[in-house]
Design brief:
Order of helices and strands: HEHHEEHEHEEHEHHHHH
Largest sheet: 4 strands, antiparallel
Strand content: 5-15%
Oligomer: single chain
Structural class: alpha+beta
Number of helices: 11
Distance between the termini: 76 Å
Amino acid sequence: MKKACTITAILTLFGGYILPKKEKDIWVGSIIKLLKPLGFSPNAIRLSLSRMKKHKALESFKIGKESYYRITDFGMKWVKYGEERAFHFEEGHKWDRNWRLVIYNIPEKMRKQRDAFRSKLNSAGFASIGSSSYIYPHDFNEQVKKLAEYLKIQDYVEIFNAKYYEKDLTGFVERYWNIKKIEKMFKTFLNEYKKKFNEFKKNRQKNPAKCFAVKFKLMTEFIDLCFEDPKLPLELLPKNWIGKETQKFVDDFYEYLDPISQKYFNDVFKSAGMTEELKRKSSKKKKGNGAKNVEKKEKRKR
């Protein structure tokens, strides 16, 4: 199973741990400490934070020499999109047995926009059925329109609702989506984490750091895996589709790990508010010690 990307890990950290807290920002040192045991180097983490700030998904500020990050409204859209794709997609996408066909004729001078448009369609789950034609069973018409408008290519893009009249839907789907490859990826993920779950239960693993690391890897790798999955309707997939089994397993393992891993996060987590509170306490302590020293000196004089 490939390691999840650093940006997915950072978004998962915000969505799963930071946003539910009262403090919505986190010290960069805490981010590095939390993600480093998962195989992410400090340099890779800092580079991803910088890129996410550049794309306005994160914003940063400093207190003294320490840097803190918080997520923006735009970054929140990334988090919600990942959560919806991984855990709630089927709830909002019931198949009406229609197909959405996107056809474009974008001129060569707009190659950059054309490549971006094609990339977004691929990542959403659309399949290419020709050099300038994409198809998808779910109704993403509004999203495609908005994307075309954002890229200023709306005059070159056409969207159709279509019916498929051949009986062999299975053959049609297998021609344009690599179902066997996706199924294999789910199996690899499931086998790896089932072994870990059995080991944790057998050894009664309660170490907060280990529970946090495994839970975090579980979530980030599962979310990344769901972006590889085109999320086709169950009617178009093999019986007992492994994606459903995988999601149920992830929910169960998450519930087992969450209470223990939360303790580790709380121990490592540091926000700007916590830093200021520590400074105030330290200042009060110094003032208190200063007053005591003055009192001692006065007593000696007497």
